[in-house]
From TrEMBL:
<protein>
    <submittedName>
        <fullName>NELFB factor</fullName>
    </submittedName>
</protein>
<dbReference type="GO" id="GO:0032021">
    <property type="term" value="C:NELF complex"/>
</dbReference>
<dbReference type="GO" id="GO:0034244">
    <property type="term" value="P:negative regulation of transcription elongation by RNA polymerase II"/>
</dbReference>
<feature type="region of interest" description="Disordered">
    <location>
        <begin position="556"/>
        <end position="582"/>
    </location>
</feature>
<dbReference type="InterPro" id="IPR010405">
    <property type="entry name" value="COBRA1"/>
</dbReference>
<dbReference type="Pfam" id="PF06209">
    <property type="entry name" value="COBRA1"/>
</dbReference>
Amino acid sequence: PGQADMYAGLQELGVANGEDLKETLTNCTEPLKAIEQFQTENGVLLPSLQYALPFLDLHGTPRLEFHQSVFDELREKLLERVSAIALEGKVEERYKKLEDLLEKSFSLVKMPSIQPVVMCVMKHLPKVPEKKLKLVMADKDLYKACAVEVKRQIWQDNQALFGDEVSPLLKQYILEKENILFSNDISFLQNFFSPSPKTRRQGEVVQKLTQMIGKNVKLYDMVLQFLRTLFLRTRNVHYCTLRAELLMSLHDLEISEICTVDPCHKFTWCLDACIREKFVDNKRARELQGFLDGVKKGQEQVLGDLSMILCDPFAINTLALSTIRHLQDLVGQDTLPRESPDLLLLLRMLSLGQGAWDMIDSQVFKEPKMEAELITRFLPLLMSFVVDDHTFTVDQKLPSEEKGPIPYPSAIPEAFTKFLQENRIACEIGLYYILHITKQRNKNAFLRLLPALVETFSDLAFSDIFLHLLTGNLTLLSDEFALEEFCTSLFDGFFLTACSRKENVHRHVLRLLLHLHHKVAPAKLESLQKALEPTKQSGEAVKELYNQLSEKLELRKPSPAEVTETPSMELPLPTVPTPASR
């Protein structure tokens, strides 16, 4: 800090500072006397000290050191006292004392040694006078130095300033999610959905936002508004995750001031428990249904918020996994989908979640209409695939007659492909069914349904979350990568159809090959390496992954010495002319 800052505000309080001493010394005839007088007037006024100070002089302790230690001690005592005042006596009285103290000390706010005291007083005031807040806001250094409790008071009336503080955190959050989806660690055991909700809420961004909001409903509403706006602008579903995580983080801290006014609180809390279990059980299904059925006339706007909570990929994942489990159970019970209320509720919630963007965009708050064909045609079709698998397994076990083994059904019903292209919910459930069969290492079913993924609703089969999960599950089929037919279906028939137009697909294929290249037949690997070569338009991430893959493949190639190695003993030795015979 500059000299001026060192003494900022002392003059206003009638306390002499360095400038005064300078002036006194400039205009006096006896400097030593003037210094002594200045010390007496401005020193610590304790009679007993007159005898102690010379004693310290004998020990070579500079006066500055002594005064500094007294000052530090007094400041600590004052800080403790301020914190104590904030908790004692009647509310009006304690705040009156703090306001008076602020009035007296505020002129010293720029003085580094006194600043912590002024900041502490402001921190304990629930309402810092407007004028003081404006002065703090106008000074970059003061704004930076003040406590989050004071900043909240500034932010609640300055949305743009609050937005500037929140924006980098939201960017960081999205980046963290994308880094997990594109991580080079591929595994069916650990994936994007593995961390529990409670673990996720401990993340840096959620914790920082929770602290910035405190108990301030106005700031909480502002953050939700930012998330809605960004979700609308980008369609990025990770903002929906953050919306739920933030509410549940405040729930963990029992901040009732906010939880009781957020109409989604109990619904989110119940759904959070389902996400933790990765399954919606019957009891919770009833609870969730109660919340949806309980939306009253005139309060439909809450559906916009509920849909955003349900659009969180972690919620969609839980609902879709539960749907697949229900369908399998129905096969065993000989029951049709339309006869299962639990299944219909899952579809209702999936539908609400998938319709979030349209609802918030159009501001028409009503539940999307469920297409009857989804329930009467598509789901029975999925169930028929489950039956095909059971039948095939049983057939394999029966003693084969002359007619030979029954082949696995290879045709895909046209209706299945059409549903995946035209119906969002059908597509989501269809993709989760394919993830399910891959996880079961069911190669036949996987190869049968894979062609239906080339064209899907809104290219969902090429979305990062699906490809992240698929690549993880494909590690379970790693031995199949040695087979030409499997690789051709997977790479040429699916991945490579989108690589050139979708950079993210290019990245996911390279991630997969980095992990499984040693399983792929060399000839196939070579053609894939050519097909996946980055173009001029490719981003840095693709180039980086491709280089990593090329390095790995280079290490695998046999060295030239090994390639040309032949049994040398059988070859005649070449005749080398000796210098003499030239």
